[in-house]
Structures are given as C-alpha cells and as structure tokens.
Amino acid sequence: MFSPEAILLLLFKGMALIAVAVYVVFATVVVRQVYLMTQTLRVGFETPIRVIAWVHLFFALIVLLLSFFSI
Amino acid sequence: MPDLYKSENSTQTNPPAEPVYPTPSTKTLWSFYISPNNVHFETQDPEEKIVLLLRKHPITNLWWIIVAVFLISVPGFFDSYSFLPFLPRGFHFVASLLWYLVTVAFILENFLSWFFNVYIVTDERIIDVDFHNLIYREISETKIDKIQDVTFTMGGVMSAFFNYGNVIIQTAGTVPNFDFQAVPEPASVVKILQQLRTEEEKEVLEGRIR
Hints:
The complex is a heterodimer of chains A (about 70) and B (about 210).
Chain A: H1 4-40, E1 41-42, H2 46-70
Helix pairs in contact in A: 1-2
Chain B: E1 32-34, E2 40-41, E3 50-54, H1 62-77, H2 80-83, H3 89-116, E4 118-122, E5 125-131, E6 137-143, E7 147-153, H4 157-162, E8 164-171, E9 177-184, H5 186-206
Antiparallel strand pairs in B: 1-3, 3-4, 4-5, 5-6, 7-8, 8-9
C-alpha cells in the first residue's frame, strides 16, 4: 500500500499540476487580452507587447512540461 | 467709377488656421502626448485628428514596481527547501519557476493596465478607454460640444510634486461625467479642452460642422 509520505507527495504533485495548468489558461487569456488591447489602441508599440505575451505563454507551457517530468 | 481698393483673392475664403495647442511644461514619459502622429484608436473617423493622448502619470506605477521588486527578491532570501524538506528538489525548482512566472504576470498586467487605459481628446470628441480586467473593456465617448463643465483637482504631496491631478468633465451626454484620473499637467488639459470648445462654437457659427 502507499505510505503516507507517498500519498502526500502525490497530493502535492496533483495540486502543483493543477496550479500550473490554470496558469497556462491565464497566460492564454493574457495573449487574447493583449490582442484586444492592441486592436483598440494602436500606438506603434504593439509588436513588442505581443511578443512578450507569447513568450510568457511559451514559458508557462515549458513550466507545465517540466512539472510533469520533474516532480 | 474706378475701384479705390480691391483686396487680393477677395472671392477666395481663407481656410481656418491650424489651432495651436499649449505644450506641456515638463516631459512626462508616455503620459502626455499632444497631436501624436502614430496613434489610432478603433472607432476613429478617417478625418478625425487626435489632439491629446493621456495616461495616468508614471509615478502612479511606483507601488506595483516596489511590490514586483520585492516578489523578485523573495526567492533569494527564502529557501523553500528548508520549509518543506520532504518534497523532492524538482518540486522546489518548479515552484520557484512558477513564482517568477506569477511575478512576470503581475508586472505585465499592471503595465498593460497603465499603458492601455488612456484618455483621448480629438478635435470632435473625448474618449475614455478602460480595461477593467482581463476581458472586460469599456469605451465611453462624448462630443466636445456636449461638454458643460470642466474642473481639475490636485491634492496631496505626490501630485503637487509631480504635477498631476484629476480632470472632471461634466457632459450633457449619456455618460454624465468623464474622470481623467492622475493625468499630468491637468491645467494644460483644461486649457486644451477650453480651446477645443471654443473652436467647436466657431465651427457652428461658421457652418463648418462635420
């Protein structure tokens, strides 16, 4: 049977995976938000902001992958 | 009888002179643009010219910058492994990555909120663009000739030192009040609005309504 420590570890891992998955959803919404904002107001700074939003989403996905394999 | 005086181009009416707006007395990073060239908004008419683009004074961002610096420095002072030693090293590594990601999201959200919540004054109307949260935006506008009263307030040490304040515009439109919060040079903003109202009245008198 599973030891209490193993069960606790499994619980923590589950919670961490859920937290990172929720964060990836948030990062996706940020990309959409940036798109809406740059559609509403164009000031010549859209490209850097869009790149930052996509890089942010990319890193969130990397952390999700790492959390599957590292913990 | 010969003409005593004949003015040149007597049948040609002179086009109205381009209005001259006051320039701000201090340079304010990205918060006070007069007649910006490369700015367009979603509902802008092709002939409409942006006279003023305003944001909150950059100093209003100080609080979240301080919080962000604190958040970035926390992992350097706090070792999560000593807090939860029974968890594997990989867990702590992912936890610190997630911490930094959340910090980046905090910085990004606050910057976007400051950068895209703008107040626009064109030669025809005033527009208030508000992004309240991730997916809710509110754009209010009213015509310049519907402005009834303009008031500005400056209160506090910071606003007196950095010269920013609130400009409250009462209108006869659907939205009764427009509140330009913490904008730089509020006195200049009021002056420009007054100038625009005068020009609108001139346009009505001269029949140059668009």
